[in-house]
Specification:
alpha+beta; five-stranded mixed beta sheet; 3 helices; 29% strand
Length: 133
């Protein structure tokens, strides 16, 4: 049995500036938009985004284990800076791809680290089409 694990943190807020967050932390964010920026696609296409939003992603394709999450480390060190840049809505998305059966164990140390952030966590499990698992 193998798992593919990805972990992403969404950072959003009416006045959240991904560019300012990157400048202050030196951390590269993905899929960012500034509040008021004109959207090129999606539901706001041709209109200004009403908020700023970006993703903080794990480097690489898949985590070996949640214990090794660099996103949680980065959040722990920088959550106050992200809030200072306007991030008022933050959450962690964990996606688990599996073959045959999905058993996920969360260690007390991982749960303690994530709980200390004070943000929601969503977990999605899906059956993977990959034969390489």
């Amino acid at each position: 049995m193998s798992l593919q694990i990805s972990l992403v943190c969404m950072l959003c807020g009416d006045m959240f500036s991904p560019a300012e967050a990157e400048r202050r932390t030196g951390i590269k964010l993905s899929k960012g938009n500034e509040p008021g920026e004109i959207a090129a696609k999606g539901r706001y296409k041709g209109k200004p985004y009403p908020h700023g939003c970006a993703e903080l992603r794990e480097p690489g394709e898949s985590l070996i284990s949640l214990e090794k999450s660099q996103v949680v480390d980065i959040l722990t060190a920088n959550i106050d800076t992200f809030r200072g840049c306007g991030a008022t809505n933050m959450w962690i998305d964990i996606a688990i791809g599996y073959n045959n059966q999905c058993n996920l164990e969360l260690s007390p140390s991982f749960l303690t680290r994530v709980a200390s952030l004070g943000i929601p966590v969503a977990i999605t499990c899906y059956e993977s089409d990959s034969e390489e698992m």
